[in-house]
Amino acid sequence: MRNLFSIAALSLILASCSTKQEQAMLIIESKSQQDIDYSVNKRRPSIGYDPIEISKGKLSSNDSIILIVPLGEPRFIKTKFNNRYYTLYLEPDNSLHITITDSSALFVGDGANINNYLALSRVFWNKCNSDVGKYTAKPPKEYGQFIDSVSIALENFNSVYLENHSIKNEKWNILTVKNECELIVLKTIYKLVNPTAFRVLDSIPKSLLNIYGKLPIDKIYLQMGMQEYFNVLELYNRFEVIFPLTNNVNENDSIIAKTPIVAYYKIKETDSLKLANEFLLAKYVSYWLSEKGITPEIDSIYNDFRNEYSNSKYLASLETHYREFYALTLGQPAPEITGVSMSGDTITLSSLKGKIVYVDVWATWCGACIEEFPYYEAIQGEFKDNTEVIFLFVSIDSEKEKWENYLKNKAIVSGTQILELKNNKHPTISESYKLWGIPRYMLIDKEGEIINNRASRPSSGKVIDEIKDLL
User: What span, in angstroms and rounded, lies between the C-alpha atoms of 190 and 91?
Assistant: First the structure.
């Protein structure tokens, strides 16, 4: 009786509220045999599409709760009930009742048909995603057949649902875009796993060609918080803009430095991308900050975005991202690195102040890291009698025993070997130095300041001269 009273009372309050049209109401009722930990969030307009928490808490069995969701426009909302996730579609003035059982969620009220569809389609796509692993090692023709079977199954699923439920055309169009994004991700997975297969296009079935052909480019899907659309635009940015410009270009080639500018203006000048330019350009600048840090070229496109989109809702998060990388530029204090040696001693980067430190971030499972080790023989030989130069090898292995066994059993390079300490007291080196991957090399001067956050790798032939310039 307490819950029914609270629902009725709150409904009366909402009825008299002048901003009723800018919010939706969720009535969540538990029919589960156990307590439910719930959370509700929406996506903020940022380059990371970060979640904004609306509410979280615990719902007892046979209890209910009312949540008010602020909405200025129709949008997708993410919910979690214990370990089950549901995407909701809400419009201003909606009142949606959700009944949670031990195995499902049932929706009644405004938008019930579209939300029940979203719940059922999530089961469909989860099954498809779980099947992907069976086909990624197959030839392109067989993976194409898998994609075709998914498309047919989706058509059948949709037909059955629409025979029994009514969804307005404009809403069905939104669901169609969402499903197309899911399908694009499945297609892209094969391209990620088998990039060499796409060098011979004659062997690629039609279903795996022109992957993004049916994707409408429109910021409206970002504004409504469609996570799948955000994911696909990221893939589009990389596969259709960045990779074509960087493929077959040596990382030391002068062309690579100009790539951010070339691709940035390619996005700006492509008519089909106009409706999502603001997001794509912000995301693109963010990508290159993460990939290369702050360079004159990346500074150029960052400032172009700030000038052209001075009121952009993505600008705040992009500026935060920029400041994080500015802290890693020439002359800035090097963030602390903390690790433990084979003998159990704690060693920090700051304890090496007064030395020139060449930092190598690696792991025993990283083949590209280990391929660089033989080149240290010549480099370290050049400085073998110089006590002012330290080579600090920082392993990010998660298992200490594997790291120790590798150092004991392999012909490893000399230098100061430490295993990164990972606890709440110290940020990880990946967090401090914004690492996307390894190997990664940094050069730190005697004052503990950054000379190069992306120093040359041992095989480049440049490391000896770069260290000598500091002596």
Answer: 36
* H-helix segments, 398-454: 400-409, 429-432
Backbone angles phi, psi at 451, to 5 degrees: -95, -45
Task: Indicate if 352 and 432 belong to the same structural domain.
Answer: yes
- Within-domain flag for 116: no
Residues 464 and 443 in one domain: yes
Q: Residue 351 in 3-state DSSP? A: helix
| 281, 172: one domain | no
What's 37's domain CATH number?
2.60.40.4150
Q: Which of 304, 326, 348 is the last residue of a domain?
A: 326
What is the residue-level pLDDT of the chain in tens, covering all 471 positions? 334 334 433 443 444 343 445 899 999 999 988 899 999 998 776 777 777 888 899 988 889 999 999 888 899 999 999 889 999 999 999 999 999 998 889 999 999 999 999 999 999 999 999 999 899 989 999 999 999 999 999 999 999 999 999 999 999 999 999 999 999 999 999 988 888 888 888 889 988 988 888 888 888 998 898 999 988 988 887 777 777 766 655 554 455 557 788 888 888 887 777 778 888 899 889 888 988 889 899 999 999 999 999 999 889 889 999 999 999 999 999 999 999 999 999 999 999 999 999 999 999 999 999 999 999 999 999 999 899 999 999 999 999 999 999 998 886 788 999 999 887 777 899 999 999 889 999 999 999 999 999 999 999 999 999 999 999
* CA 81 vs CA 24, 42, 86, 94, 227: distances in Å: 19, 15, 8, 21, 19
Distance CA 382, CA 227 (A): 52
As a whole number of angstroms, the distance between CA 278 and CA 214 comes to: 21
User: Which of 295, 294, 304, 302 has the alpha carbon at shortest distance from 319?
Assistant: 302
Cβ neighbors of 359 (< 8 A, separation 6 or more) are 337, 349, 392, 394, 441, 442, 443, 444, 455
The reply to whether 93 and 171 lie within a common domain is no
Name residues whose C-beta falls within 8 Å of residue 230's C-beta, 6 or more positions apart in sequence.
Answer: 43, 49, 222
The domain of 36 spans 2-110
pTM value > 0.90: no
Indicate the number of domains in the chain.
Answer: 4
The alpha carbon of 21 is separated from its chain's Cα centroid by a whole number of angstroms, namely 33
CATH number at residue 342: 3.40.30.10
Q: In what order do the strands lie in the sheet with 84-90?
A: 51-59, 36-43, 75-81, 84-90
- Tell me whether residue 223 is in a domain: no
Work out the end-to-end distance of the chain between its first and last CA atoms, rounded to an integer number of angstroms: 80
